[in-house]
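In the design runs reported in the main text, the only information available to the sequence generator was the tokenized backbone. The following block is the verbatim input for one such run; it is reproduced so that readers can re-run the procedure and compare outputs position by position.
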């Protein structure tokens, strides 16, 4: 949820705990924030969730958590339908192992094939429809 990200960024910029210094940039495509924490550059992945809801991470976000290890923080923002400035935040440092152990995978796969002239002829000749 974009709202949760905005709430947390307002807190960060205002110096409210957790006290990280926003570096002014985001990592694309997953929109993680780059910050300074205890003198080190870290990545914050911010996810808003409803009570008894789920936090959903993309494969790109999981890959970034795996590559970043100690410099990766997952921050959950609980949308409890109350005032946004009162939403609770939950911080998980280097969460990959716990995510893989407790999370459930839902695969949405796609197949891509390089189209070449000979392949198109073969598909057309054999009446294969993609």
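Verbatim output:
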């Amino acid at each position: 949820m974009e709202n949760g990200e905005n709430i947390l960024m307002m807190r960060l910029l205002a110096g409210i705990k957790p006290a990280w210094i926003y570096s002014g940039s985001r990592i694309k495509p997953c929109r993680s924030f780059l910050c300074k924490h205890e003198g080190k550059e870290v990545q914050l992945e911010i996810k808003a969730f409803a009570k008894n809801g789920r936090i959903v991470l993309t494969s790109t976000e999981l890959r970034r958590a795996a590559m970043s290890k100690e410099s990766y923080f997952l921050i959950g923002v609980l949308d409890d339908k109350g005032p946004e400035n009162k939403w609770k935040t939950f911080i998980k440092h280097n969460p990959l192992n716990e995510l893989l152990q407790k999370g459930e995978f839902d695969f949405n796969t796609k197949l891509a094939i390089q189209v070449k002239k000979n392949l198109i002829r073969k598909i057309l000749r054999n009446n294969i429809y993609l």
